[in-house]
Amino acid sequence: MTNVIQVAILGLLLGGVYALMAAGLTLAFGVMRIVNLAHAAFIIASAYISFFAFDKLGIDPLLSVVFVMPIMFFFGIAVYQALFRRIEGSAKFGEMTVLLTFGIAIMVEGLLGFVFTGIYRKAQPGYANESFIVDGLFLPEGDILFIPKGQFFASLLSIVLLVGLWAFLRYSQTGYAIRATTQNRAAAEIVGVNVRRVSAISFGLSTALAGASGALMSYLFPFFPFRHWQWVAVLLALVVLGGMGSMKGAVIGALVLGVASSFVVDQIGPTWGPMTFYLALFLILLIRPQGLFGKEVPV
Amino acid sequence: MAILEITDVSAGYGAGPDILQGLSLEVEEAQSYCIIGPNGAGKSTLLKVIAGLLHPRSGDVVFRGESLAHRRPDQVLATGVCFVPQDQALFPEMSVRENLIMGAYLLKDRALIKERLARVYEMFPILAERAGQDAGKMSGGQQQMLAMGRALMIDPILLMLDEPTLGLAPQIAQQIFSQVEQLKSMGLTVVIIEQNAQRGLELADWGVVLDLGIVRFEGPSEGILGDPRVRELYLGKAAGSGEKK
């Protein structure tokens, strides 16, 4: 029983970080219908910023969020204005964004590989290899639980950022505009929302979330430029499970798959961990293509 | 005095042909207009052009001396021109209250928004009763009232309604007509496209008949209703008989 709780805790902690990663991807799709295949490449690029801030300047990866997020926010707005605005009116906007972001992902990967080479990196702050130890409580005598500090702090920060995002979307005027544009772009225009501006801000927010995710990735997972392909597959599985464009779905999908993959790793082996995501993607597309919280689109 | 002057406007969608073909029309302040015409005449396209959702290929749309021809929808709305499209265009997962607040998106004064909200609730008590309900879960008639209420949040000078009774049961449609009457009595300039042309013309001061992207006839509604050519061609009634064909 203790082992089950231990595995579930690890899964939930991991799921919290996945939720932050997926939130940015689903935001871009919800507001602008952009399937951003470059989202994971942006996460890796941000991980490099945090890694070098730690390595060269001694700045804690968790603290680096303070500057990585604004950098990525403005980077996202610049990318949107320079590239997506040009294809905005196209009837095949959705399809074109897939090709465009695929191209951006390859460019980012190439640039990172050129500048930083392909070697594995991972920041090593002191807490990354420490754990909180829990005993007593409801546990059988002699049993203990390990809560890795690095994952715990990362998950905590993810929750803080996601709650902040939720409050922003729920209560701010720009948040209202983003939600309105997500639900009905034409109606948003009619009530006076400048949907182009809102789209640019949303894309900026999406990349800022990629920035925060990258800061966490810098010490949680070893990374190198090519790694983004593996991550984007995982993230797509999370948002498809939750329903493309649904923030609630992305968070729940991330937590469910975080826990599921944790159990698969524990019971079958680490090689099978990533398979959990692909299997979930396969099953959800077969059974409920619109995802858990997505809406069916009439053909 | 004309507050809206549409001069020689041609407009269409994408690379398609012109739907509006050099259309000209003047709208007087505090008057109500009913636009009728066959399918494809350009009725909805005209309202979209005025609202800034579609830019004219040529010609001009001038509202109170300012050209709206190449403005964004939010810029047009800021001048006091508000459009309620055929499908109501609500935010289905937002509550009734949030939808109404979105109607006042361009306003910054919270006290004013609260005041307008109270006024809309007074006009449409059902919206106050359903304030917390998701808009997508309301009936068709209630959604139409919400769309109209949302348009009033900005306190428009010119309100354009595109087929507000489309798909509604006759009783509900009558309620909508009563609300439009009320808006007229408040001194609002109203332009309405109505599938029930007879009822729409009875409601309006002025009738406009569109055909093939131009104004074919216009004049006081009674005159349009009594015009045998209009009755024959657009109201589906034999001239002089008053009976449906």
* Category by helix and strand content of chain B: alpha/beta
Q: In total, how many beta strands of chain B? A: 10
Bin the strand percentage of chain B: 15-25%
What string gives the helices and strands of chain B in order? EEEHEEHEHHHHEHEHEEHH
> Greatest contact pair?
A-B, 17 and 25 residues
- Report the strand count of chain A: 2
How confident overall, as mean pLDDT of chain A? 91
Oligomer: heterodimer
Report low-confidence residues of chain A grouped into runs of 5 or more.
Answer: none
The rounded Rg of chain A comes to 19 Å
C-alpha geometry of chain A: globular
Beta-strand content estimate of chain A: under 5%
Please describe what this structure looks like.
The complex is a heterodimer of chains A (299) and B (245). Chain A contains eleven helices and two strands; from the N terminus they run ααααββααααααα. By secondary structure, chain A is mainly α. Chain A has one domain. In chain A, strands 1-2 form a two-stranded antiparallel ribbon. In chain A, helix 5 (149-171) crosses helix 6 and helix 9 packs across helix 10 (247-267). In chain A, 49% of the residues are buried. Chain B has 245 residues and is α/β, with parallel strands linked by helices. In chain B, 37% of the residues lie in helices and 24% in strands. Chain B has helices at residues 43-51, 73-78, 96-103, 110-123, 125-129, 140-152, 170-185, 197-203, 221-226, 228-233, and strands at 2-11, 20-28, 32-36, 58-63, 66-67, 81-84, 158-162, 189-193, 206-211, 214-220. Classes of the chains: A mainly alpha (299), B alpha/beta (245). Chain A binds chain B through residues 91, 173, 176-177, 179-180, 183-184, 186-194, and chain B through 14, 51, 53, 72-74, 77-78, 83-85, 89-94, 98, 101-103, 105-106, 150, 154.
Outline:
Chain A has 299 residues and is mainly alpha-helical.
Features:
heterodimer, A: 299 residues, mainly alpha, two-stranded antiparallel sheet, 73% helix, globular, B: 245 residues, alpha/beta, six-stranded mixed β-sheet, four-stranded antiparallel β-sheet, 37% helix, 24% strand, disordered C terminus
